[in-house]
Amino acid sequence: SIAQLKKSVAIPVGEVISGKDIKFIKGEIRQINQMKRKISVGSREMDYDYLVVALGNVADFYGIEGVEKHALPLQSLPDALRVRNAVEFAAQRMRMEPNRRFMRVVVAGGGCSSVEMAGELKGFLDEVAWKNGLDRENMEIVLAEAGSNLLAGIGEQAAREAYFRLKQLGIRVELSHRISRVDNNFVEFLGGEKVEYDVLVWAAGAKAFPVPFAHAELKDKKGRLLVNDFLQLEDFPNIFVIGDLSAAAAGKPPFLGGVEQALDQARYLAEALPQLMRNRRPQPFKPASRSWIVNIGGKWAIVKTDRLNFTGIFAYIIGRLVRFRYYRRICGFRRAVKYWLLQQELYGRND
Ligand SMILES: Cc1cc2nc3c(=O)[nH]c(=O)nc-3n(C[C@H](O)[C@H](O)[C@H](O)COP(=O)(O)OP(=O)(O)OC[C@H]3O[C@@H](n4cnc5c(N)ncnc54)[C@H](O)[C@@H]3O)c2cc1C
């Protein structure tokens, strides 16, 4: 059920902070005034001595005409549920309107999220077709990527493996297809080619959340805030930035993003901050090299680390085990077992 699905991917904050001396305030951050050391959350204003900013990413539509209006971004759980609803709606419309003989879901982007999404959609369309008594042959998934490779930045071998896996799943992969315009029914590519769609999923890029600072801060070209060795803003050492919003200063090893790095930074800061408060100099933060596990439909994945690159069911099993580690880091061993088992039950059945 949807409720079970939600439970398996969204851990309530209360479970993460229970038993710890942390006060949770639900609200939107409206302004951070670095000079006055004040933060506005909803209608409240609070003073702070130290501030950790971890506001993550938002979808990047690159200013392409029509994308923000017509495409469904894929950044959060509500976004994912909207995609699910849109696909179900398109299938129901096909069932009710005899003139509609065909439906197409276009996934924009060829990075990890898009490739995983396309793989998941394959299974979901099988199910939706069966439920609605539709011919699955009349449903198509198209993945469109502007570059000449999938999984840019992960490596050529992984890119090839992802390509052949998607093909094997019956997904149409269009490389070197840069979307230049979107309207209600069509995606248009640079060069003029048009593809009709029923659902357009936008997983083609993300940029840093635009933090409402009262005074401008140094950023990289993705809008991420540049931090020093201790994850501090250079001009305001009482403000720390972690997660997708942070970027290493020029000349330093880059931050590659992802959950593990966000958790590493959080752990680092939990140890470094008390030292900084006592005017001691902690060890600098050193980003670990990033590993990738990309699930592409069913019990199949790609594992890519500095030294390893393998695919198939074994990679899928490694992915499930890594997920346990992730839960354990967030909410402790006992709760990790609970969430992991719930996911095993759900995904074991779906995959
Ligand atoms: C579809 C998808 C799949 C992914 N899969 C993987 C994966 O398999 N492995 C991996 O390593 N990484 C994955 N990532 C990336 C991963 O989610 C991020 O790297 C990670 O969540 C970064 O953590 P963060 O704390 O910086 O930001 P987030 O986890 O995005 O947290 C930011 C939080 O800030 C809140 N927020 C935003 N604006 C405000 C505001 N104004 N006021 C108050 N709160 C606000 C948001 O609601 C959110 O809860 C995936 C990302 C996406 C979108």
Number of helices: 8
Could you tell me how far the N terminus lies from the C terminus, measured between alpha carbons in angstroms? 15 Å
How many structural domains are formed by the residues? Answer: 3
Which regions are unreliable across 5 or more consecutive residues at pLDDT < 50? none
> Structural class of the helix and strand makeup?
alpha/beta
**Quaternary assembly:** single chain
Major beta sheet, strand line-up: 6-13-7-8-9
Proper CATH architecture of the largest domain = 3-Layer(bba) Sandwich
- Record field, number of beta strands: 20
What is the CATH superfamily classification of the largest domain?
A: FAD/NAD(P)-binding domain
Radius of gyration: 22 Å
CATH topology description of the largest domain = FAD/NAD(P)-binding domain
Main pleated sheet = 5 strands, parallel
